[in-house]
Specification:
Blueprint (H helix, E strand, L loop, with lengths): L1 H21 L8 H35 L1
Length: about 70
């Protein structure tokens, strides 16, 4: 499970970078750029959710030891 979470984090970062490249910075909310902006937001939020999951699992392990 731990390896899977790190792989998903790497994929999330990769998708975020890919979508950042696709954005037309002069008109970021036009045509295909709007899809890329949504993709950046989605991949960034998935990264944060996975990070929160990892931190919460570490906290649970610490409390289990006590």
């Amino acid at each position: 499970m731990k390896i899977l979470l790190y792989i998903l984090m790497i994929i999330s970062i990769g998708l975020c970078i890919f979508n950042l490249i696709q954005i037309d910075w002069e008109n970021p909310l036009r045509d295909k750029s709007s899809v890329a902006v949504i993709g950046v937001i989605a991949s960034a939020s998935s990264f944060l959710l996975i990070l929160i999951l990892i931190v919460s699992k570490k906290i649970a392990q610490i409390h289990k030891k006590k």
